[in-house]
Design brief:
Blueprint (H helix, E strand, L loop, with lengths): L1 H15 L2 H25 L6 H24 L7 H10 L2 H4 L15 H21 L3 E3 L2 E5 L3 H16 L23 H10 L5 H26 L4 H13 L4 H11 L15 H6 L7 H7 L1 H18 L7 H17 L1 H21 L3 H24 L10 E3 L3 H4 L2 H25 L5 H16 E3 L6 H27 L5 H27 L6 E2 L2 E2 L1 E4 L1 H13 L5 E3 L2 H4 L6 H6 L2 E2 L11 H10 L7 H10 L4 E4 L1 H6 L3 H6 L7 E4 L4 E4 L2
Parallel strand pairs: 8-9, 8-10
Antiparallel strand pairs: 1-2, 2-7, 3-4, 5-6, 10-12, 11-12
Helix pairs in contact: 1-6, 1-9, 2-3, 2-4, 2-9, 3-4, 3-9, 3-14, 3-15, 6-9, 6-10, 6-22, 7-8, 9-10, 9-13, 9-14, 9-21, 10-21, 11-22, 14-15, 14-16, 15-16, 15-17, 16-20, 19-21, 19-22, 20-21
């Protein structure tokens, strides 16, 4: 089975990258994760290969990103970072030996290898075709399709900016004179790789190689987390497979709805299927874990570090252990620095779990020891978040409100988005009461998640951001619950056992259509149906590709280009930074909040395309724009814009032009 898994992954890698990029990407990934495996091996020398294999890669990835980021801020920019950061992390392996025996980590059992191999096969089955079609050249241009195209395109824009090597912090590509207001630390490895290898490895190749690797680490991490709670290998594999493949009834609902209205079933290919709760009912969208595998590797690292920090509290062997809490605090702090909102949720859950423990058996020594142990690394993480420029001081990012989207048709939306998991969790309640495995830690996470779901909101995301993070945490936790359930049912001699097994199967089969439809839709680059955020597939036409090529080879990498961000809207909001590899003076980045300053700046800069020529020139100079980019959206929104610019050739000469694109230089 391990051979089949290896061949499936090899096929997936060969589908997304050429030999040179593949060799470089895989070797640098292996070097980056190796220290994490060494650290876990040092902590668990008598547990076999399992702990190091399932937890080590993402621990190495997270610590490597931290060290590489610190070296970057200190001025390091060369390819030596790919070696130096892992070597520094590897020095932790020796002191890690002192942590032996502090946690009940899983020991390797005979069924582990087969279970891990089976789960690894899921990764190429889910992402193989979607990844193979990313950036594919078609007769009409280069196509990019994702369940939500912005995720991948934004990742391109972040990595490109990091690769430019601005010191000490990356530049805000959408606001002149500002730093990048985004949690960029998990992208630092991609930035260093692209800075070094862009002459012979495309950015798409490097990003997809890393996504495939992190996806493999993710499914094995979930397996390891389930095994932490003494779930047998076969049951743990079933739990992980269930939450990866079957979390939502939205696909089933769409099939039923279309058939009842005599709409062709093929129309499901026009839907953002795992966001049906949002599209159809204006409720809270909750994405399944297959979408994390598609294009969110940075969140995977943040999620897993948060869960590792949280579960470390539940499986510790000593009631009072400040060192264990310090390690937990490091993991939680890494989660905050990598995926800030997810890290915040995991940290609050850890605080709640420990608070309940203190109330049950209050001990001043325990309270002080644990608070100091976890508090120091968490305080350092918060300082790092501010030091790296994540937080925009122009406005509040997180607000405490009763979220109107969360409460809208709550029961129906929850059943639609999470039905299979809810059914199985309800079925598992008796088993969890009978099984004393320390699962209360997931109760703390569930309570925290519900509090965030209803009362915490990230601004300027349509009140839906918390739904994605809450859903992902709940689904990951459910892997353990389902593993406990199936193990319990297998041993049960109750007369209700056949009914319970049938209900489990119905829940799984009911959630499969969503994932199957989502996989098909995500790889379909022939679908140009209109969606709320633009076309289902973003197509870069030959004229645009020609313009981008001219820009990359004939303009300064630090030059600022300008399109009309309002005319372009959400479909091509990261157009220039992600594909032309150039900054904008002002844009509308939907991933950086709050949006007020970007909206105000965009409204002002849009005047450039319609006002009198000399006034437009003066506005461009004040905005420090080097080039103005005119494409079909600008031409349609501002008739005569090129005639106006052509009338002032001394101030704004035409620098380049083809059939649909004109580029004017601002002298």
């Amino acid at each position: 089975m391990i051979v089949v898994a290896a061949l499936a992954h090899l096929a997936a890698y060969l589908a997304v990258a050429g030999p040179a990029a593949l060799a470089f990407g895989l070797i640098s990934q292996a070097i980056f994760i190796a220290p994490g495996i060494l650290i876990l091996r040092a902590i668990t020398p008598r547990h076999g290969w399992l702990p190091g294999a399932v937890f080590g890669p993402l621990v190495g990835m997270a610590l490597g990103c931290l060290v590489m980021t610190l070296l970057w801020v200190a001025g390091g920019r060369g390819p030596w970072l790919l070696i130096a950061a892992p070597l520094i992390v590897a020095t932790l392996a020796s002191p890690a030996r002192r942590l032996q025996g502090r946690w009940r980590l899983p020991s390797t059992e005979p069924g582990d290898l087969t279970a891990v191999a089976l789960l690894l096969i899921l990764v190429p089955l889910i992402v193989g075709l979607p990844f193979a079609h990313v950036g594919e050249m078609t007769p009409d241009g280069q196509a990019y399709r994702a369940y939500f195209t912005a995720d991948y395109i934004w990742r391109r824009a972040v990595v490109i900016e990091l690769a430019k090597g601005a010191s000490p912090l990356p530049v805000n590509q959408f606001f002149d004179g500002d730093e990048m207001r985004y949690y960029w630390m998990p992208h630092i490895l991609d930035g260093v790789q692209y800075r070094f290898a862009q002459a012979w490895a495309s950015l798409d190749e490097l990003l997809l190689i890393r996504s495939l690797a992190i996806n493999a680490f993710f499914v094995t991490f979930l397996y390891g987390m389930t095994r932490m709670f003494r779930v047998r290998p076969w049951a743990a594999a079933i739990g992980v497979a269930f939450v990866i493949l079957s979390t939502s009834f939205e696909g089933l609902y769409a099939l039923f709805d279309f058939s009842s209205q005599r709409i062709p079933i093929s129309q499901v290919t026009t839907l953002n299927i795992d966001a049906l709760s949002r599209w159809y009912f204006q409720g809270m969208p909750i994405d399944g874990l297959q979408r994390v595998l598609f294009y969110q590797p940075h969140h995977i690292i943040g999620y897993t570090m948060g869960l590792l920090g949280l579960t470390a509290l539940a499986i510790r062997t000593r009631p009072i252990d400040g060192v264990a809490f310090a390690v937990s605090g490091v993991c939680l702090g890494l989660s905050i620095a990598i995926s800030s909102f997810a890290g915040l949720m995991a940290t609050v859950a850890a605080m709640l779990f420990e608070l309940v423990g203190l109330l049950r058996s209050f001990n001043v020594r325990r309270a002080v020891s644990h608070a100091i142990g976890a508090g120091i690394p968490l305080a350092a993480a918060v300082a790092l978040v501010f030091g790296l420029g994540y937080v925009d001081r122009s406005g509040q990012v997180v607000e405490l409100i009763v979220n109107p989207v969360s409460v809208h048709r709550f029961v129906m939306m929850t059943l639609l988005s999470c039905g299979p998991i809810l059914m199985v969790t309800a079925l598992a309640i008796p088993a969890m009461r009978a099984e004393r495995r320390g699962l209360a830690v997931f109760g703390a996470l569930a309570v925290t998640s519900m509090a965030f779901y209803f009362f915490v909101n990230v601004r300027d995301h349509g009140n839906v951001y918390t739904g994605w993070r809450v859903g992902h945490f709940m689904f990951m936790s459910a892997a353990v619950v389902i593993g406990v359930l199936v193990e319990h049912l297998a041993a049960s001699k109750s007369a209700a056992q056949p009914f319970q097994l049938a209900l489990l199967a119905v829940a799984f089969l009911g959630g499969l259509p969503t994932t199957i439809i989502d996989i098909y839709n995500t790889q379909d680059i022939t679908n140009f149906t209109d969606a709320p955020a633009g076309k289902m597939t973003l197509l870069l036409r030959p004229d645009e590709l020609q313009a981008f090529d001219w820009i990359r080879h004939n303009t300064n990498p630090d030059a600022r280009f300008q399109v009309d961000p309002i005319a372009r809207g959400q479909e091509t909001w990261a157009y220039l930074p992600a594909f032309a590899e150039r900054r904008m003076s002002i844009g509308l980045p939907i991933s950086m909040v709050p949006l007020a300053k970007y909206q105000q700046g965009s409204a002002a800069i849009a005047q450039l395309f319609q006002e009198e020529p000399l006034a437009a020139y003066e506005r461009a100079v004040k905005a420090r724009i080097n080039y103005v980019f005119i494409g079909p959206p600008e031409r349609a929104a501002h008739p005569g814009v090129e005639d106006r610019f052509d009338s002032i050739p001394n101030q704004m000469p035409l620098a380049w032009k083809n059939g649909t694109i004109s580029i004017y230089e601002v002298k």
